[in-house]
Design brief:
This is (Fe-S)-binding protein. By secondary structure, this protein is an alpha/beta fold. It is about 45% helix and about 10% strand. Strands 2-1-3-4 form a four-stranded parallel beta sheet, sandwiched between helices. The radius of gyration is 18 Å and the shape is globular.
């Protein structure tokens, strides 16, 4: 099976450790992972902001770069949802007669990490060890568009040493929503405050999710409160072994709250 890593703009720029964790994890499970260097943005930000035609070159590039792979794995529910749910719409309005077929052959092969592990590889126990109290936030795209369900939780429950606690009102949005947090800052902050309150109620050391964008949003609020709760992508927990039991440092941590 030819597997490609689609890292996404956000992870490449802000959280490169997540991509490295995906590769370590998949290689530990016997996979060979390619990283196509021609990959760029999937167009999610443009599409969600109403600039659908501006997505056309990005969708075309995505279909070209990832053509020929058996599977494309990404540590982002939101970007996986963009490719699978919206690339076809962009192809329809592109005016390029070849693009719909290119998208149709590529988009269905894109998998969010937990989907790939559980549905394609057929594993839940990935050999991880993470002796910390963890709670899981299901991000909106993974919950409502991809419908990953309990796949991430099944993977986390199989991690040795973990103390996994349920997050109250887990299905509620954290308020990030990409440009929503910029355009509707007051509403976004209020939604995040509700989410932070629920995270603190769990007594968890670590908040886990499948999208670093949401973790950055919630983590920023936790940092400003000096709450002592870390944020960590699902991939980094699943890639952890006994040799890496200490919590790894994350981008942006240690910055003084504003």
């Amino acid at each position: 099976m030819r597997i490609a890593l689609f890292i996404t703009c956000f992870n490449d720029t802000m959280f490169p450790a997540t991509g490295r964790a995906v590769v370590r994890l998949l290689e530990r499970l016997g996979c060979t992972v390619d990283f196509p260097t021609g990959q760029t943005c999937c167009g999610q930000m443009h599409f969600n902001t109403g600039y659908q035609r501006a997505c056309v070159p990005l969708v075309r590039r995505f279909a070209e770069v990832f053509a020929g792979y058996d599977a494309v794995v990404t540590p982002s529910g939101s970007c996986a949802a963009m490719v699978r749910e919206h690339h076809s719409r962009v192809a329809e309005i592109s005016g390029d007669p070849a693009l719909p077929a290119a998208v149709e052959s590529t988009a269905p092969k894109v998998h969010e990490l937990s989907e790939f592990l559980v549905d394609v590889l057929g594993v839940t126990d990935v050999g991880a060890y993470f002796p910390h109290r963890v709670t899981y936030h299901p991000t909106c795209h993974s919950l409502r568009m991809l419908r990953v369900g309990d796949r991430p939780l099944a993977l986390l429950r199989a991690v040795r040493g973990i103390d996994l606690v349920e997050l109250p009102e887990a299905d509620q949005c954290c308020g990030f929503g990409g440009t929503f947090a910029v355009k509707n800052a007051d509403t976004s902050v209020a939604m995040c405050a509700d989410k932070v309150r629920r995270v603190l109620d769990t007594g968890a050391e670590v908040l886990c999710a499948g999208d670093n964008s949401c973790l950055m949003h919630i983590g920023g609020a936790l940092s400003r409160l000096r709450a002592g709760v870390r944020t960590l992508h699902l991939a980094e927990i699943l890639a952890s072994t006994e040799a890496e039991a200490a919590l790894p440092a994350r981008a942006g941590e240690g910055v003084a709250p504003r």
